[in-house]
Design goal:
274 residues, alpha+beta, Jelly Rolls, seven-stranded antiparallel beta sheet, 10 helices, 11 strands, globular
């Protein structure tokens, strides 16, 4: 077993996220916690197979799968037939609940992972940072932990979710379509057909996973593209910026920009010296 417990002083515990333990186990033993674990807990399977018991339900954990759970959730996990190798990290911090809510909607979830290599590499970077004996160790580990959670979010789909892993279609295909076609008209009916669901269901998915309505998300994407164009195309007038970003009315573009960015497009340009 390879296990690290970082030194945590008062300053480290003030960070938005901080690692309480991290490691890997080539021969994962049986763990039974009727009272749960005191920290947030991520574990994924490197090789072999294991069983997880969680709130009266049993999951078979195979390579390319993992789970995330909040503190205090009763659980038990054990190896299946043969050796079971795992990697894990536990963490706390005042941003933990908010950030994990971007990955799961309840106190726990079991995931299948598309980019297992990316997840393992992100965990390895945290582990390396936790071995460093310098004043910035806790800060570096905190930043890497946040990137790890982002990596999990990008590569994970709930074990029993209706949303597929990125690249398989469905909701992710809708997001890809918006990214590739933001300059043209986008209708809710067309987006729903891409996901093979009803418009109402698509709206629920947007609220659940992006905390936004579909057209609010589309507006944010277009504004993101507009900001990039304002900086890269300094000679373009705002009308051209608006059209290239999917806004047919420059006045509406300016109104939405002020609403979401808190300033006018011209003020944004001046702020960056363009």
């Amino acid at each position: 077993m390879n296990m690290i417990f970082p030194i945590l002083n008062d300053e480290a515990r003030k960070l938005p996220l901080y690692v309480t333990s991290i490691g890997g186990n080539e021969q994962q033993e049986t763990i039974s916690r009727q009272g749960g674990f005191p920290s947030w807990h991520w574990l994924h399977v490197v090789s072999g197979a294991g069983r997880l018991q969680l709130e009266g339900r049993e999951y078979m954990l195979l390579p390319g799968m993992g789970f995330l759970m909040a503190p205090g959730v009763p659980h038990r996990y054990e190896a299946g037939d043969g050796p079971w190798e795992t990697g894990w990290v536990t963490f706390e911090g005042h941003a933990s609940e908010y950030l994990t809510a971007q990955i799961m909607s309840g106190p726990h979830a079991v995931f299948r992972l598309r980019g297992m290599d990316a997840v393992e590499q992100a965990l390895s970077r945290i582990q390396l940072a936790c071995t460093l004996n310098n004043p910035l160790q806790a800060f570096e580990a905190s930043a890497l932990l946040q990137m790890f959670l982002v990596t999990v979010a990008r590569n994970a789909a709930a074990w029993d979710a209706r949303i597929p892993v990125e690249g398989e279609g469905g909701f992710q295909e809708v997001l890809r379509h918006i990214e590739e076609n933001f300059q043209g008209p986008l209708s809710l009916d067309v987006l729903a057909k891409i996901a093979h669901i009803t418009p109402q269901h698509l709206c629920r998915l947007f609220r659940q996973h992006l905390n936004a309505r579909p057209f609010e998300y589309i507006t944010r994407v277009r504004l993101q593209k507009a900001k990039a164009s304002m900086l890269s195309q300094a000679g373009w007038p705002l009308r051209q910026i608006a059209e290239a970003s999917g806004f047919t009315d420059p006045s509406y573009f300016s109104k939405q920009f002020r609403h979401y960015e808190g300033m006018t497009p011209m003020a944004f340009r001046r702020m960056y010296g363009k």
